Amino acid sequence: MPTHDLVVIGTGPGGYVCAIRAAQLGLNVAVVEKNATYGGTCLNIGCIPSKALLHASELFDEAGHGFKAFGIEVPAPVLNLAQMMKHKQETVDANVQGVAFLFKKNKITAYRGKGKVLGAGKVEVTADDGSKQTVDTKSIVIATGSDVAQLPGVTIDEKIVVSSTGALELAGVPKKLVVIGAGVIGLELGSVWRRLGAEVTVVEFLDRILPGMDGEVAKQAQRLFSRQGMAFKLATKVTGVTTSATGAVVSVEPVAGGEKETIAADIVLVSTGRRPYTDGLGLEEAGVATERGRVVIDDHFATNIPGIYAIGDVVRGPMLAHKGEDEGIAIAEILAGQHGHVNYDTIPAVVYTYPEIASVGKTEEELKAAGIAYKVGKFPFTANGRARANRTTEGFVKFLADATTDRVLGAHILGAGAGEMIHEAVVLMEFGGSSEDLGRTCHAHPTMSEAVREAALAVEGRAIHI
């Protein structure tokens, strides 16, 4: 008989949640982790540490520029970057230690080392000292996450030219920071260092920021970021980066052709996306099918090899921690004989800039491309009482509903706390709700969330405060 019912390779959000849920359901579970700590990219060098720095930098910026309007007179704040980094590390440590505790609580066996799939039912674990052991199991879940995508011709040294990992560990605030890529990671980390004093220039190949998000929201967000001091060079490609002991020079030119130019920088952040991490997993030898680097799965997370499954960033869909978590829960329940399922139409996405940007469901561009008739309801935070009191009036809420049935097809929020407010739209859509359902639901006054209700009411022209 196999030693375990399930072996999960990787302990990022998808992997550790999968392991815990499977253990809750009575399975004998083991995990394989190559790093010194659990939690994968998200907890160690991604979501969690970046949010610690985002919050801290927002407070620093607010103390320096926002307190006076509230009648709070304080001296100009002094940055203690070492203490800010200490806060970040303490946040990371607490989270990864929490995962270790949960593994122990749920009696999950941990194998330290790099996992390799030998075939159905067998995982080889290579420890740091080179020793190997083979673990037998009924089922294998591949949850190895993703890694930084390299930009051709640009070498990341994590000193002058950094990835998101290096951008979280800078020893000082750069005078000039060039961010290559105007996606989520680039905007979040660029905003951290701008608030702390860097001059930030964002270079993006496309003619817009935040590809894939609602165009109107992205356009307004860019206006706000520009007003804050970030410079944007859109429809621009990077043709090279040269480095020296003191900094870098980024060569760029218009995508459509035109005059070339160079941008001097102390630090260059490469944030052009991520790639599935399957290095050394032995997938090809084991016969596991992949396509464009991603593991191919069916609707039940199964690969083409019986008993081998995959979730998270290594499979299709958005590379989001919570998407991986939901998939981890679903496959654990399936393996336990239940009916795990993920509704990919209701997975929210959040950009943790200031103001935040949150989205769920379809964008206007997607609905137009699909030929779906829809109605739009919008409400600005300038008309929200709590936003005025908080001086957080930037942005708006936007609902997209089917023109015939009124079923909500998408919701998009640009504003302070958008990442929290989006979830009532997520729940509404999960239950197939209409804009009227939300519009007729009482909201406490005064709250920022009232703007969500007003936007829902606006779908049928019923908003009260505009």
Q: What do these coordinates show?
A:
This is Dihydrolipoyl dehydrogenase. Its cofactor is FAD. It comes from Labrys miyagiensis. Residues 347-456 form the Pyridine nucleotide-disulphide oxidoreductase dimerisation domain. Its EC number is 1.8.1.4. The protein is of the alpha/beta class and 466 residues long. The chain has three domains: 4-148 and 275-342, 3-Layer(bba) Sandwich (FAD/NAD(P)-binding domain); 161-272, 3-Layer(bba) Sandwich (FAD/NAD(P)-binding domain); 348-458, Enolase-like, domain 1 (2-Layer Sandwich). Helix content is 32%, strand content 26%. The strands form six sheets. Strands 1, 2, 3, 4, 5, 6 and 19 form a seven-stranded mixed β-sheet that branches. Strand 23 and strand 24 (408-415) form a beta hairpin. Helix 1 (13-24) packs parallel to helix 9 (321-335), helix 3 (47-65) runs antiparallel to helix 4 and helix 3 runs parallel beside helix 6. The chain is globular. The termini are far apart.
Task: Label the CATH architecture of the largest domain.
Answer: 3-Layer(bba) Sandwich
Please report which band the strand proportion falls in: under 5%, 5-15%, 15-25%, 25-35%, 35-45% or over 45%: 25-35%
Helix content: 25-40%
Can you tell me the CATH superfamily of the largest domain? FAD/NAD(P)-binding domain
pLDDT < 50 runs, ≥5 residues: none
How many independent structural domains?
3
Coarse structural class: alpha/beta
**Outline, from the CA principal axes?**
globular
Number of helices: 14
Radius of gyration: 24 Å
User: And the CATH topology of the largest domain?
Assistant: FAD/NAD(P)-binding domain
- Regarding quaternary structure, what we see is single chain
**Mean residue pLDDT:** 97
